[in-house]
Amino acid sequence: MPKSKAKAVKETRVVVKLSGSLFFARDFAEIVGTLRRIVESRKYLRLVLVAGGGKTSREYIEAASKFGADQASLDEIGIHISRANAMVLICALGEVAHSRVPSNLQEVMQALEIPRNRIVVVGGFHPGQSTNAVAALIAEKTRASRFINATDTDAVYTEDPNEHKNAKPLTSVTIKELSEILGRESMRAGGYDLMDPVALKLIERSRTPTLITKCTPKILEDSILFGKSPGTVVSFVY
Amino acid sequence: MPKSKAKAVKETRVVVKLSGSLFFARDFAEIVGTLRRIVESRKYLRLVLVAGGGKTSREYIEAASKFGADQASLDEIGIHISRANAMVLICALGEVAHSRVPSNLQEVMQALEIPRNRIVVVGGFHPGQSTNAVAALIAEKTRASRFINATDTDAVYTEDPNEHKNAKPLTSVTIKELSEILGRESMRAGGYDLMDPVALKLIERSRTPTLITKCTPKILEDSILFGKSPGTVVSFVY
Amino acid sequence: MPKSKAKAVKETRVVVKLSGSLFFARDFAEIVGTLRRIVESRKYLRLVLVAGGGKTSREYIEAASKFGADQASLDEIGIHISRANAMVLICALGEVAHSRVPSNLQEVMQALEIPRNRIVVVGGFHPGQSTNAVAALIAEKTRASRFINATDTDAVYTEDPNEHKNAKPLTSVTIKELSEILGRESMRAGGYDLMDPVALKLIERSRTPTLITKCTPKILEDSILFGKSPGTVVSFVY
Amino acid sequence: MPKSKAKAVKETRVVVKLSGSLFFARDFAEIVGTLRRIVESRKYLRLVLVAGGGKTSREYIEAASKFGADQASLDEIGIHISRANAMVLICALGEVAHSRVPSNLQEVMQALEIPRNRIVVVGGFHPGQSTNAVAALIAEKTRASRFINATDTDAVYTEDPNEHKNAKPLTSVTIKELSEILGRESMRAGGYDLMDPVALKLIERSRTPTLITKCTPKILEDSILFGKSPGTVVSFVY
Amino acid sequence: MPKSKAKAVKETRVVVKLSGSLFFARDFAEIVGTLRRIVESRKYLRLVLVAGGGKTSREYIEAASKFGADQASLDEIGIHISRANAMVLICALGEVAHSRVPSNLQEVMQALEIPRNRIVVVGGFHPGQSTNAVAALIAEKTRASRFINATDTDAVYTEDPNEHKNAKPLTSVTIKELSEILGRESMRAGGYDLMDPVALKLIERSRTPTLITKCTPKILEDSILFGKSPGTVVSFVY
Amino acid sequence: MPKSKAKAVKETRVVVKLSGSLFFARDFAEIVGTLRRIVESRKYLRLVLVAGGGKTSREYIEAASKFGADQASLDEIGIHISRANAMVLICALGEVAHSRVPSNLQEVMQALEIPRNRIVVVGGFHPGQSTNAVAALIAEKTRASRFINATDTDAVYTEDPNEHKNAKPLTSVTIKELSEILGRESMRAGGYDLMDPVALKLIERSRTPTLITKCTPKILEDSILFGKSPGTVVSFVY
After folding, report:
1. Which residue of C has its CA nearest to A141?
2. Which of A53, A196, E215, F106 has the fewest CB atoms below 10 angstroms from its CB?
3. With an 8 Å Cβ cutoff, are E109 and A116 in contact?
4. CATH number of the domain located at residue range(s) E12-235 in this protein
5. Which CATH superfamily is domain D2-235 in?
6. ipTM here
């Protein structure tokens, strides 16, 4: 029956968290070109991009911290900057992107219900929630095929590679191991963005396939289309 | 100078998380009476109450889970029920309560800016955030003097007291220890509500003084007014 | 001309009010299955389901009434519960349902403008308006083919069948007669939900074909698809 | 004790529905002056004014009806016009009025929580709800001392005075009698605004003391301050 | 390749500002018929109509001005009336129009993302912004093919034709010349609506092709479909 | 009479536009200290601060422009950044500031209705409106005593002082003269922020006393408290 066949071709959803520093990186235009090409060639692929706060966010938060601001207010600064980043990305993507930055999960779902495969781009949502947690939440709600955390580092290491010479990259890591590696990590606004406990808990409860990898045009394409990456896979085996 | 003196009398804020099961408990009217009395006698005390989802929420979530719903949607069910609980509490408190249930942090701040010391009552805010996390976030943003988690249990135990005969109540526990005790705890919507990793992370980053204690009229009064309780104190010593 | 032909196949809209008690009834899964099958087989049929508050709502409202709450606040409790009910139904329907619960008429229209025939599910809208009135209003605005009030009773009776042995079911009833039968009916929040004066007035002014019938899988299917039911038809002949 | 004494002086709330035709009437400036004087002299009186749609609304609705619009859309036209009327009234009242037109019950409550006795002015809220129903709902939620429907007629008559020579004004009328008198009244958008079934049902359930009277400066003052009027009182004796 | 061909047929957008006086004009029904016919025959044409405030708006603003209201509040009155006008137009257009009046640029974009070529109708957006500026802003954001200001006059004249006998209509005018002609024009709420400095600045920065012309069925059709009109073209040559 | 006396002490409102570059300037902490001191010592003074986008905004807009974005989208980027700037200022001001960034005129009015003289801080509002226009609009709506545009330049010059050696600072300038001086000024998003045509038109229609001056702690204090500055006064004499 043609009907059930038609039903078989369902939309695939992939959520990608992009570092906020990307937007001023040298290969930004090339990455934009890759993303455009991907969605134009794959009619049934739906991309949601989550823009982090990046360097600008960290500078702003640092400026406000000096005056003794509470963490929830610092989160709000980060959210404004991440939305500016998301809007830059929307401008760069042009016609293939949804024209507005949704500000909560409901607005993301609303944007995704428009039957064109336009890329939806968001920044942060609410205080107390990192952009990684936002990405994990969208992946959960949309039952995404995968959540790709495209960062500045090429993988999760056994220890901080900047401080430990012998730190080794991991091809696979359990949620528990990752929690321990991130253990000393604070949750302060604008902090280190490899992954945070809130995002990890959301990934764990929804069991979303998750990749942590470097953000290059080639790696983005492979990880979005085929789920392949030279980075680290989060596994759910206990 | 009288002026600086006037400034010395600043508003004290206390955030209390109440179990959603409270609203149908036998001593609900007595607890309501206690809360009323507290705010009527303390002009500079500002209470924010966070209603959990309770038994109703768990039943609803269980009903929806059978159909294979995603966790974020189950969270939404819990949020609706917790808001109904919050509204019941507002009705019970009458004139001493703010008449609406704020649905996000901004609306809580707005309600608190009204210069009467009315109790502000909320339920859940957003998917991915437990009502404990909501309470911790409000405590952080309002720089609350303390966050009291008034639960069904009388304290945090070394192990689950329902399963381990030798489990012992703790008078004090570090964030790290509490994380470990809660380690096996899932973050599923409507789950066990002693505390969850997201709430713990928020408490940790803002260093809000936190009590986990049983919910009785007497304990509520002592813990709200004096920070004293027979339960468990969360400590920040590492 | 193929063009005008294409135009002839217009979307048919049917609004169904479902009792809030349904969601915990034994045949809930079967009813969900029936609804799914209907929309999957009828591409040009658009269903809007309105969830009532049911037993949970009545218990909550009773709890709050004891403290002397005003009716408008009690209405708000009922609205929160009916939205939780709506969300349970959305979870149960899965892919064939719109993923969010619209909270006013504008949001319903917005959801209906998405060109997929997904079922839109709502709860209550505003204080002072029963879920029956919400259903009647949506039927009016969408120019629905019919409004089916799927209740716990099998029809409108000449008198209350629980109290009068000789009460007889009616196959047809005028708005005026129905008003008189419901005359002693109070409009209190969470009250008897066969129909209320506000809903009746909306049905009258828009002349929406209306059925009051029992909620079983078979009756739902017949009444949605063919407008046939063993219950009562509201007539506009004076 | 001075404290309980202070508590005794509680805010009194009065809700007045004003005909939308008032705003272009000859004595509009005088009525505005009266309202200003009342709130300036009574610190504990809180006025909520509800502006009807009036003649402009009826003309607009008539224009749109010709094209076969549904009643809910016509209601929306009336709501826009009534809000324009409300804004004219806010401009006229100047400093003694709250500067914005609330668009739902929540926003009215929010405006009333600001501790200055500024007059809050609204127009319509939602389709399916007349401005009389809006006034009745606000009276219910705020537990108003009275709801004054200041109309173009001087009282409720036994029959339509325009058509029946022997029609007699009534000093008191029960809800039931008023329902019958209004029985032939349609609920069409922009219709006759003496009172409508929805408003009556809300008055009935909350038992708000209600006056239907002519709108003159003198009558407004007497009815707002003392509840006295030469018009008709709605009674709750059955 | 069929793919790139399909891409070549892109949606064309045209923004038309309609005088608020139109809605009570004799040829309103005829204009509505023309608009309906245009969108039904042109699948890839997307119309956005902006309703001005017209005579009603001017009367309302005049009434409020007498009491010394600030200009921003008078703007709000005009916005309410223009939205009522927009709703009348939506009712008149029926099925070919989007059913709601968007209240800001985001809501317009949202309405336009629905993949049916329904006409989107708006009124004013915010105080400080004329409906001409709203039209220019929408034209800019949607990269419209043209902005047609369909007014009561047949063209821009060298001088005010009502006061100067020798005033001559212009077929083309630069932004600079138009600014000078409009120089003595005040920006008061409800003022002369040929064009205003804010709208001109927006047209200038986005270089939107702009026509100022009389509003007749024939001229509307020619200017919407072919960009031809007997009125004045705004040119960007310096 | 004490009553009319009490009324004589009315709140004075002053709107200050601050350059977005201020927030990373060396004397930022000193300026924050000055603002705090001013509002703590003047109970009846109400300050509204409008944060511009500054250097960050210009960099972001430049990055997005390269991809051919429309001006309205670039405006949105600037709005996000100006709100981040506003939030930094709120964090720095601490207890003397309203805790949230209002996003439109209504929210500003709402924040100002809270009877504490907290400073309200905003960024941009809507596309098509510069932060100068936002400041002028707030000044108009609140009937502010003055609008101070605290910029990077010390006054308005006869010509651009960076390009013309003989440019002379002006102590007073008419709206018309200022329009001409700014004539060559484009309205592009993120452009030169001395003043823009939209802001000028709003100042003109409301005749708000306006100062354009350098932003130093001393000048800010003098201009806010006494309306004195070494910069340029905008005059309304024609």
Report:
1. C99
2. F106
3. no
4. 3.40.1160.10
5. Acetylglutamate kinase-like (3.40.1160.10)
6. 0.91
